[in-house]
Design a protein that fits this description.
2 domains; about 350 residues; Rossmann fold
Protein backbone atom coordinates (compact mmCIF):
# COMPACT_ATOMS: atom_id res chain seq x y z
CA UNK A 1 0.00 0.00 0.00
CA UNK A 2 1.18 3.53 -0.79
CA UNK A 3 1.03 5.65 2.36
CA UNK A 4 0.33 9.34 1.67
CA UNK A 5 1.74 11.97 4.04
CA UNK A 6 -0.45 15.07 4.44
CA UNK A 7 1.05 18.04 6.29
CA UNK A 8 -1.33 20.24 8.32
CA UNK A 9 0.08 22.78 10.77
CA UNK A 10 -1.94 22.92 13.99
CA UNK A 11 -1.82 26.72 14.31
CA UNK A 12 -3.70 27.31 11.05
CA UNK A 13 -7.16 28.85 11.04
CA UNK A 14 -9.89 26.31 11.96
CA UNK A 15 -11.64 26.65 8.58
CA UNK A 16 -8.41 25.97 6.72
CA UNK A 17 -7.71 22.86 8.85
CA UNK A 18 -11.26 21.62 8.16
CA UNK A 19 -10.66 22.05 4.44
CA UNK A 20 -7.20 20.43 4.40
CA UNK A 21 -8.29 17.42 6.50
CA UNK A 22 -10.97 16.31 3.99
CA UNK A 23 -8.91 13.61 2.18
CA UNK A 24 -8.04 12.05 5.57
CA UNK A 25 -11.67 12.29 6.74
CA UNK A 26 -12.84 10.54 3.54
CA UNK A 27 -10.47 7.63 4.21
CA UNK A 28 -11.82 7.20 7.77
CA UNK A 29 -15.43 7.39 6.54
CA UNK A 30 -14.65 4.71 3.93
CA UNK A 31 -13.29 2.33 6.58
CA UNK A 32 -9.56 3.01 6.05
CA UNK A 33 -6.70 3.87 8.42
CA UNK A 34 -5.23 7.34 9.06
CA UNK A 35 -2.51 8.22 11.59
CA UNK A 36 -3.03 11.69 13.05
CA UNK A 37 -1.53 13.98 15.70
CA UNK A 38 -3.11 14.47 19.13
CA UNK A 39 -1.80 16.48 22.09
CA UNK A 40 -0.55 13.23 23.72
CA UNK A 41 1.00 11.07 20.96
CA UNK A 42 0.15 10.21 17.33
CA UNK A 43 -2.92 7.97 17.03
CA UNK A 44 -3.77 5.32 14.44
CA UNK A 45 -7.41 6.02 13.62
CA UNK A 46 -10.34 4.11 12.14
CA UNK A 47 -14.14 4.34 12.32
CA UNK A 48 -14.79 3.01 15.85
CA UNK A 49 -18.25 1.64 15.07
CA UNK A 50 -17.13 -0.21 11.92
CA UNK A 51 -15.88 -3.62 13.00
CA UNK A 52 -13.92 -4.30 9.80
CA UNK A 53 -12.17 -0.93 10.07
CA UNK A 54 -11.26 -1.46 13.74
CA UNK A 55 -9.83 -4.90 12.89
CA UNK A 56 -7.36 -3.24 10.52
CA UNK A 57 -5.84 -1.28 13.42
CA UNK A 58 -4.84 -4.47 15.24
CA UNK A 59 -3.33 -5.89 12.04
CA UNK A 60 -1.31 -2.75 11.20
CA UNK A 61 0.11 -2.50 14.73
CA UNK A 62 0.51 -6.21 15.39
CA UNK A 63 -1.58 -5.52 18.49
CA UNK A 64 -3.01 -8.39 20.57
CA UNK A 65 -6.78 -8.56 19.96
CA UNK A 66 -7.60 -8.38 23.70
CA UNK A 67 -6.01 -4.93 24.01
CA UNK A 68 -8.90 -2.45 23.58
CA UNK A 69 -8.84 0.84 21.66
CA UNK A 70 -9.70 4.33 22.91
CA UNK A 71 -12.59 6.05 21.08
CA UNK A 72 -12.00 9.72 20.29
CA UNK A 73 -14.97 12.09 20.21
CA UNK A 74 -15.24 15.79 19.31
CA UNK A 75 -18.15 16.84 21.57
CA UNK A 76 -19.06 15.68 25.08
CA UNK A 77 -22.55 14.53 24.08
CA UNK A 78 -20.98 11.93 21.74
CA UNK A 79 -20.19 9.91 24.88
CA UNK A 80 -23.90 8.98 25.04
CA UNK A 81 -23.65 7.39 21.57
CA UNK A 82 -21.20 4.78 22.88
CA UNK A 83 -21.62 4.77 26.69
CA UNK A 84 -24.46 3.23 28.76
CA UNK A 85 -25.41 4.63 32.21
CA UNK A 86 -22.75 7.34 31.85
CA UNK A 87 -22.19 8.53 35.45
CA UNK A 88 -22.35 12.13 36.66
CA UNK A 89 -18.62 11.85 37.39
CA UNK A 90 -17.94 11.77 33.63
CA UNK A 91 -19.59 15.15 33.14
CA UNK A 92 -17.68 16.60 36.10
CA UNK A 93 -14.34 15.36 34.82
CA UNK A 94 -15.20 16.56 31.33
CA UNK A 95 -15.99 20.06 32.60
CA UNK A 96 -12.59 20.17 34.30
CA UNK A 97 -10.25 18.41 31.86
CA UNK A 98 -11.86 17.91 28.43
CA UNK A 99 -10.77 18.60 25.78
CA UNK A 100 -7.46 17.12 26.98
CA UNK A 101 -5.22 14.18 27.81
CA UNK A 102 -7.77 12.20 29.86
CA UNK A 103 -9.56 8.95 28.93
CA UNK A 104 -12.65 7.72 30.79
CA UNK A 105 -13.89 4.12 30.95
CA UNK A 106 -17.68 3.72 30.99
CA UNK A 107 -20.11 0.85 30.22
CA UNK A 108 -20.45 0.29 26.50
CA UNK A 109 -23.55 0.47 24.34
CA UNK A 110 -24.27 -2.44 21.99
CA UNK A 111 -23.47 -0.14 19.04
CA UNK A 112 -19.76 -0.45 19.89
CA UNK A 113 -18.28 -3.61 18.36
CA UNK A 114 -16.35 -5.94 20.65
CA UNK A 115 -13.43 -5.64 18.23
CA UNK A 116 -13.04 -2.03 19.36
CA UNK A 117 -13.26 -2.87 23.08
CA UNK A 118 -11.10 -6.00 22.93
CA UNK A 119 -14.07 -8.10 24.00
CA UNK A 120 -14.88 -5.95 27.07
CA UNK A 121 -18.33 -4.61 28.04
CA UNK A 122 -16.73 -1.26 28.82
CA UNK A 123 -15.42 1.41 26.47
CA UNK A 124 -12.62 3.98 26.72
CA UNK A 125 -13.52 7.52 25.59
CA UNK A 126 -11.39 10.64 25.07
CA UNK A 127 -12.08 14.15 23.80
CA UNK A 128 -8.73 15.40 22.47
CA UNK A 129 -7.78 19.09 22.33
CA UNK A 130 -5.57 18.94 19.23
CA UNK A 131 -7.24 21.00 16.47
CA UNK A 132 -6.21 18.55 13.72
CA UNK A 133 -7.60 15.56 15.65
CA UNK A 134 -10.87 17.37 16.32
CA UNK A 135 -11.21 18.38 12.67
CA UNK A 136 -10.63 14.77 11.57
CA UNK A 137 -13.37 13.47 13.89
CA UNK A 138 -15.88 16.14 12.87
CA UNK A 139 -15.20 16.05 9.12
CA UNK A 140 -15.27 12.23 8.95
CA UNK A 141 -18.64 12.14 10.71
CA UNK A 142 -17.26 9.18 12.68
CA UNK A 143 -16.13 8.47 16.20
CA UNK A 144 -12.50 7.46 15.82
CA UNK A 145 -10.92 4.47 17.53
CA UNK A 146 -7.23 5.19 17.88
CA UNK A 147 -4.44 3.55 19.84
CA UNK A 148 -0.95 4.99 19.62
CA UNK A 149 0.36 4.80 16.03
CA UNK A 150 3.42 2.65 16.78
CA UNK A 151 4.13 -0.99 16.05
CA UNK A 152 2.98 -2.86 19.15
CA UNK A 153 5.70 -2.86 21.82
CA UNK A 154 7.73 0.08 20.41
CA UNK A 155 7.89 3.56 21.97
CA UNK A 156 4.82 5.66 21.11
CA UNK A 157 5.27 8.17 18.25
CA UNK A 158 5.53 11.88 19.09
CA UNK A 159 6.60 13.00 15.59
CA UNK A 160 5.26 12.08 12.13
CA UNK A 161 8.67 10.59 11.24
CA UNK A 162 8.19 8.02 14.04
CA UNK A 163 4.85 7.00 12.47
CA UNK A 164 6.46 6.80 9.03
CA UNK A 165 9.10 4.43 10.50
CA UNK A 166 6.45 2.05 11.83
CA UNK A 167 3.42 2.41 9.54
CA UNK A 168 4.71 3.18 6.03
CA UNK A 169 3.08 0.81 3.54
CA UNK A 170 0.55 -0.44 6.10
CA UNK A 171 -1.99 2.41 6.22
CA UNK A 172 -3.59 4.82 3.74
CA UNK A 173 -2.43 8.14 5.20
CA UNK A 174 -0.32 9.88 7.84
CA UNK A 175 -1.32 13.42 8.81
CA UNK A 176 1.83 15.30 9.87
CA UNK A 177 0.89 17.97 12.43
CA UNK A 178 4.36 18.45 13.91
CA UNK A 179 5.41 17.40 17.39
CA UNK A 180 2.99 16.32 20.13
CA UNK A 181 2.98 18.76 23.05
CA UNK A 182 2.54 16.30 25.91
CA UNK A 183 4.40 13.29 24.57
CA UNK A 184 2.88 10.67 26.91
CA UNK A 185 -0.40 8.81 26.41
CA UNK A 186 -3.55 9.97 28.22
CA UNK A 187 -4.38 9.31 31.87
CA UNK A 188 -7.03 6.54 31.98
CA UNK A 189 -9.74 6.69 34.68
CA UNK A 190 -12.18 3.82 35.17
CA UNK A 191 -15.65 5.10 36.14
CA UNK A 192 -17.41 1.70 36.10
CA UNK A 193 -16.61 0.56 39.67
CA UNK A 194 -17.63 1.93 43.09
CA UNK A 195 -14.62 4.20 43.23
CA UNK A 196 -12.97 5.96 40.30
CA UNK A 197 -9.60 4.38 39.59
CA UNK A 198 -6.61 5.49 37.53
CA UNK A 199 -5.61 2.56 35.29
CA UNK A 200 -2.79 4.41 33.51
CA UNK A 201 -0.99 7.50 34.91
CA UNK A 202 -0.55 10.44 32.57
CA UNK A 203 -0.28 14.21 32.37
CA UNK A 204 -3.55 14.65 34.32
CA UNK A 205 -2.30 13.60 37.76
CA UNK A 206 -4.00 11.77 40.66
CA UNK A 207 -4.11 15.07 42.58
CA UNK A 208 -5.91 16.76 39.66
CA UNK A 209 -8.54 13.98 39.46
CA UNK A 210 -8.97 14.06 43.25
CA UNK A 211 -9.84 17.76 43.04
CA UNK A 212 -12.97 16.69 41.13
CA UNK A 213 -13.47 13.13 42.44
CA UNK A 214 -11.93 13.01 45.95
CA UNK A 215 -12.25 9.22 46.36
CA UNK A 216 -10.20 8.43 43.24
CA UNK A 217 -7.42 5.85 43.67
CA UNK A 218 -4.62 4.40 41.57
CA UNK A 219 -4.80 0.79 40.32
CA UNK A 220 -2.35 -1.06 42.63
CA UNK A 221 -1.43 -3.25 39.63
CA UNK A 222 0.41 -0.38 37.94
CA UNK A 223 2.42 0.56 41.02
CA UNK A 224 3.45 -2.96 42.08
CA UNK A 225 6.98 -3.39 40.75
CA UNK A 226 6.85 -7.13 41.53
CA UNK A 227 3.98 -7.37 38.99
CA UNK A 228 2.19 -9.94 41.19
CA UNK A 229 -0.93 -7.83 40.91
CA UNK A 230 -2.26 -7.71 37.35
CA UNK A 231 -3.06 -4.22 36.02
CA UNK A 232 -6.73 -3.63 35.14
CA UNK A 233 -6.17 -1.97 31.76
CA UNK A 234 -5.39 -4.88 29.42
CA UNK A 235 -2.71 -2.90 27.58
CA UNK A 236 -0.72 -2.22 30.73
CA UNK A 237 0.32 -5.84 31.12
CA UNK A 238 2.26 -5.94 27.86
CA UNK A 239 5.93 -5.07 27.46
CA UNK A 240 5.77 -1.67 25.85
CA UNK A 241 7.74 1.38 24.84
CA UNK A 242 10.85 -0.77 24.58
CA UNK A 243 13.85 0.41 22.59
CA UNK A 244 15.93 -2.29 20.87
CA UNK A 245 18.81 -1.79 23.32
CA UNK A 246 18.67 -3.08 26.86
CA UNK A 247 17.59 -0.25 29.18
CA UNK A 248 18.44 -0.01 32.88
CA UNK A 249 17.23 2.69 35.28
CA UNK A 250 19.74 3.83 37.91
CA UNK A 251 18.11 5.25 41.02
CA UNK A 252 19.67 7.13 43.97
CA UNK A 253 21.28 10.43 44.95
CA UNK A 254 22.65 12.47 42.02
CA UNK A 255 26.36 11.99 42.81
CA UNK A 256 25.97 8.24 43.28
CA UNK A 257 23.92 7.87 40.09
CA UNK A 258 26.46 9.73 37.96
CA UNK A 259 29.28 7.59 39.37
CA UNK A 260 27.37 4.32 38.89
CA UNK A 261 26.31 5.09 35.32
CA UNK A 262 29.86 6.14 34.36
CA UNK A 263 31.26 2.92 35.89
CA UNK A 264 28.76 0.80 33.97
CA UNK A 265 29.31 2.79 30.80
CA UNK A 266 33.09 2.27 30.98
CA UNK A 267 32.62 -1.45 31.54
CA UNK A 268 30.34 -1.92 28.52
CA UNK A 269 32.39 0.32 26.24
CA UNK A 270 35.45 -1.79 27.12
CA UNK A 271 33.52 -4.76 25.80
CA UNK A 272 32.95 -2.87 22.53
CA UNK A 273 29.29 -2.02 23.23
CA UNK A 274 27.75 1.33 22.28
CA UNK A 275 26.33 3.03 25.39
CA UNK A 276 23.44 5.52 25.46
CA UNK A 277 22.71 7.61 28.56
CA UNK A 278 19.57 9.57 29.48
CA UNK A 279 20.83 12.58 31.46
CA UNK A 280 19.32 15.80 32.73
CA UNK A 281 20.42 19.39 32.14
CA UNK A 282 22.42 19.34 35.39
CA UNK A 283 24.26 16.05 34.80
CA UNK A 284 24.70 16.10 31.01
CA UNK A 285 28.35 17.20 30.93
CA UNK A 286 29.39 14.72 33.60
CA UNK A 287 28.67 11.52 31.69
CA UNK A 288 30.93 9.51 29.39
CA UNK A 289 28.99 7.50 26.83
CA UNK A 290 28.66 7.07 23.06
CA UNK A 291 25.43 9.06 23.04
CA UNK A 292 24.46 11.18 26.06
CA UNK A 293 20.98 12.69 25.66
CA UNK A 294 19.58 15.63 27.62
CA UNK A 295 15.96 14.88 28.57
CA UNK A 296 15.47 18.31 30.17
CA UNK A 297 15.63 20.04 33.52
CA UNK A 298 14.75 17.74 36.41
CA UNK A 299 12.15 20.22 37.68
CA UNK A 300 10.44 20.49 34.29
CA UNK A 301 8.39 17.29 34.17
CA UNK A 302 6.42 18.44 31.11
CA UNK A 303 9.68 18.74 29.15
CA UNK A 304 10.90 15.32 30.32
CA UNK A 305 7.57 13.74 29.31
CA UNK A 306 7.73 15.39 25.88
CA UNK A 307 11.26 14.13 25.19
CA UNK A 308 11.16 10.57 26.55
CA UNK A 309 9.78 8.50 23.63
CA UNK A 310 11.70 10.47 21.03
CA UNK A 311 15.00 9.84 22.84
CA UNK A 312 14.26 6.11 23.13
CA UNK A 313 13.59 5.95 19.38
CA UNK A 314 16.74 7.93 18.56
CA UNK A 315 18.84 5.36 20.41
CA UNK A 316 17.35 2.72 18.11
CA UNK A 317 18.35 4.60 14.99
CA UNK A 318 21.91 5.07 16.32
CA UNK A 319 22.37 1.33 17.00
CA UNK A 320 22.99 1.80 20.71
CA UNK A 321 23.47 -1.55 22.54
CA UNK A 322 22.84 -0.61 26.18
CA UNK A 323 21.07 2.39 27.73
CA UNK A 324 21.26 3.77 31.27
CA UNK A 325 18.74 6.31 32.50
CA UNK A 326 18.39 8.43 35.58
CA UNK A 327 15.17 7.91 37.57
CA UNK A 328 12.23 10.40 37.60
CA UNK A 329 9.80 9.32 40.33
CA UNK A 330 7.39 11.98 41.65
CA UNK A 331 3.73 12.10 42.73
CA UNK A 332 2.85 14.18 39.67
CA UNK A 333 3.79 13.70 36.02
CA UNK A 334 6.88 11.82 37.23
CA UNK A 335 4.55 8.95 38.06
CA UNK A 336 3.60 8.67 34.38
CA UNK A 337 7.19 9.15 33.19
CA UNK A 338 8.43 6.39 35.51
CA UNK A 339 5.54 4.10 34.52
CA UNK A 340 6.62 4.29 30.85
CA UNK A 341 10.34 4.14 31.66
CA UNK A 342 9.90 1.09 33.92
CA UNK A 343 7.98 -0.74 31.20
CA UNK A 344 10.59 0.19 28.61
CA UNK A 345 13.24 -1.19 30.97
CA UNK A 346 11.27 -4.34 31.74
CA UNK A 347 11.38 -3.08 35.37
CA UNK A 348 15.18 -3.30 35.55
CA UNK A 349 16.30 -0.82 38.23
CA UNK A 350 19.72 -0.60 39.92
CA UNK A 351 20.21 1.27 43.20
CA UNK A 352 23.29 3.51 43.23
CA UNK A 353 24.76 3.63 46.76
P1 LIG B 1 -3.00 3.07 23.61
O1 LIG B 1 -3.79 3.16 22.44
O2 LIG B 1 -1.68 2.50 23.33
O3 LIG B 1 -3.01 4.34 24.37
O4 LIG B 1 -3.76 2.00 24.47
C1 LIG B 1 -5.03 2.20 24.99
C2 LIG B 1 -5.01 1.82 26.43
O5 LIG B 1 -6.33 1.93 26.94
C3 LIG B 1 -4.55 0.39 26.66
O6 LIG B 1 -3.70 0.34 27.79
C4 LIG B 1 -5.87 -0.31 26.93
O7 LIG B 1 -5.69 -1.47 27.69
C5 LIG B 1 -6.67 0.76 27.65
N1 LIG B 1 -8.12 0.55 27.52
C6 LIG B 1 -8.88 0.78 26.45
N2 LIG B 1 -10.16 0.43 26.66
C7 LIG B 1 -10.22 -0.02 27.92
C8 LIG B 1 -11.27 -0.55 28.75
N3 LIG B 1 -12.51 -0.67 28.28
N4 LIG B 1 -10.96 -0.93 30.00
C9 LIG B 1 -9.69 -0.81 30.47
N5 LIG B 1 -8.66 -0.33 29.73
C10 LIG B 1 -8.92 0.05 28.48
MG1 LIG C 1 0.08 2.35 22.86
Amino acid sequence: MDTRVLEIKKNLDENIINEKIKPAADIIAAGGLVAFPTETVYGLGADALNEKAAEKIYAAKGRPSDNPLIIHIADFDDIYRIGEDVPEAAKKLSDAYWPGPLTMIVKKKSTVPYTTTGGLDTVAVRLPSHPVARALIRESGCLIAAPSANTSGRPSPTLAKHVIEDMSGKIEMIVDGGSCNIGLESTIVDLTEDKPMILRPGYITLAMIKEILPDCEIDPGIIASDSLQKPKAPGMKYKHYAPKAELTIVDGAEEAVVRKINDLSAKYRNEGKKVGIIATEATLSRYNGDDVENIGQRGDEAMIARNLFSILRDFDSKDIDVIFSESFESPDVGRAIMNRLLKAAGHKVIKAE
